[in-house]
Amino acid sequence: MTSSKLFEEPGLKQITVWARGVYENKEARDVVVAVTEAAALEGKFVQAWENYVDLPDRIFVPVRAYGKISDQPIESKYVYENETPDIVALTEETLVKGVPILGGIRPGAVLVVNTKRSPQEISKFLIGDTNKLKAVVTVDASGIKQGVITLSGAEGATDASGIGGGFSGPLAGAVVKATGIVSLESLLQIVKDKAAARAGYDQARVADAKSLGLAG
Amino acid sequence: MGVKKRISGCVAVANGVKLADVDVICSYPIRPYTGIMSELARMVADGELDAEFIHGEGEHAQLSVVYGASACGARAFTGSSGVGVTYAMEVYSPISGERLPLQMAIADRTLDPPGDFGSEHTDALCTRDQGWLQGWSSTPQEALDMTLMWYRIGEDPRVLLPQYSCQDGYFVSHILGEVEIPDAAQVKEFLPPYKNHHVLDVRRPQIIGAQIEPAMGPPLQYQRYQAVEGARQVIKQAHAEFAGIFGRSYDPFVEEYMTDDAEAAIFIQGAHAETAKTVARRLRNLGEKVGVVRLRVFRPYPTQEVRLALSKFKAVGVVDNSANFGIAGSSGVMLTEARTALYNLGDKVKTVGFVGGLGGEMITHDEFYRMFAKLKEIAKNGKTDRDGYWLPFEL
Amino acid sequence: MSFKEVPFAGTVPSPKRENEGMVTGNWRTKRPVLDKDKCTDCLICWISCPDACIDQSTTGLAFNLKYCKGCGICAEVCPSNAITNVPELDYAD
Description:
The complex is a heterotrimer of chains A (216), B (395) and C (93).
Chain A: E1 13-20, H1 25-41, E2 45-50, E3 62-70, E4 87-90, E5 109-114, H2 119-123, E6 133-139, H3 141-144, H4 168-179, H5 184-190, H6 194-203, E7 205-208
Parallel strand pairs in A: 1-4, 4-5, 5-6
Antiparallel strand pairs in A: 1-3, 2-3, 6-7
Helix pairs in contact in A: 1-4, 1-5, 4-6, 5-6
Chain B: E1 3-7, H1 9-19, E2 24-27, H2 34-45, E3 52-55, H3 59-71, E4 76-80, H4 82-87, H5 89-97, E5 103-107, H6 122-125, E6 133-137, H7 140-154, E7 163-167, E8 177-181, H8 184-190, H9 217-246, E9 254-257, E10 264-269, H10 272-285, E11 290-295, E12 297-299, H11 303-310, E13 315-320, H12 333-342, E14 350-355, H13 365-381, E15 388-390
Parallel strand pairs in B: 2-3, 2-4, 4-5, 5-7, 6-7, 10-11, 10-13, 13-14, 14-15
Antiparallel strand pairs in B: 1-8, 6-12, 9-11
Helix pairs in contact in B: 1-2, 1-7, 3-5, 7-9, 8-9, 10-13, 11-12
Chain C: E1 30-34, H1 44-48, E2 54-57, E3 60-63, H2 73-77, E4 83-87
């Protein structure tokens, strides 16, 4: 007996943010929290959490933060990972190399990378299900605003430094521009540095996957 | 009215502790409960909570510190996870024996091996017979509410017992859920100041935990037995008061979900109950007569309530998220206790154990689906082939 | 996974040289690059590398990029400035 069809959640969107351990845990968490809280303002059902089994206290280790947004109550709640992300964001460019960032992506997924480089340059490094990508987006989020390095907010505690004060604001801005998952106005209501988030939205370079030769 | 926020189970408990206005907190870090203490440390540092925050040198010391604090008349709080819970094992019985109603939060973690961070109820269930009250929350909201409820019940002059407020590690402790944080004035109405029967005070010297003769054993143990048994009535009363003041009501002992006319039910405690409910709901849409019964209080075990709830079904699958090696029935302690509660009904209700989610592995939708399929088969045939199944290897 | 595939009591042989279960090269954001003309073979980098990722070969020192986490200690300790940290994406491999 199989039940795979029985538990589908059609309206559910998954966002996964990859980051480097210790330095960028907070920024990754801020991206998912900012986007999901913005979606909650728009009346959506949301969930945000950090990966529990990555090794977050190892400097540079690839770590993840997750968000879920849905029109319906979220039923796949107590899970460890987003199995099939619709949006993948990277807090740092080198994660495209040797890290399975596109694992499980759904057709039409969007990749957003914090980098000075162009989508063309980034796409050369992509491996895996690149044919499922709809767009590759780059934004120099770190150039707009420096990251905040803090352990505040780790292990499920409250982040006393606030949400979206570092480069997570502009990175979330780029996510919003590329996907329209929430409105920019909603995002700006949540993030601490509104000007930086808006700059990320304005400066994001969105390249269609077909134009990059990625689409299958 | 309170404020609504999306917070983790750890932050929810910390908010409950803050609202309970505790006097002494003793910490020692271990994942996943750590977030409770980092949040409380922040609250104390930021002046939101006026409490002594003591960092113990280990879990045994943690429990010893709150033991002393509670004996001095302070409302005390501590917590731990996994091997931290078992390391403090010696101190649990003295605390309940001296009738000190302090609270310990446990965010479950598997014992070693395998030494991972994942949730498993084994750690807290090891402590189940230490004379403490014990219950499991399945959401961050319930974790906050249980913190307040346990202080209210444990400190009641008719009870005076310590409490384990348990939540599944990661699933509840680390995933953000919507929580209504109540108003401090409401909490004040619900939870009167802590006043113990006997308080350490230099002006009135007394010995607590004195060495005793064997002849004192039976009466002292009987006193503690009566306190645990008597807590049932107070638990009911406190839940009714809680609902009146906060407008959120819980069935005190067992929560029933879609059990009307159900023929088969899953009996479970903790976070995985939420996944079981999803599966039951989807199966109901297909016309299956299935439901879920969630145990909220493990000590004192609600024998009557469990009997009443489970006796309606033809087949009950009891889910154990703990490793109880060599136990009667070869499944887990949830099964043995449920069977004891049902024993006097004869063989009317068929029970079977399912051991799942060990080491912190998820119990997936599909696993609950398979459990319900097995229960359907048992309900139809009116017999069980075996006592229990270890998932995923045996079902 | 079948319980039979898991080693008895979770006990596994210790890796003698490289641990295939913990390949850490993808932690690296910057790659150490050696200027052989400047290198004096003093081996201070070799003894300082916390992950033992610098190999002594017949043709001089070589970085084990399968495991190098790019911490930059080698470049920091090099007395002759023979090691530079270069952004990882400047290399296709």
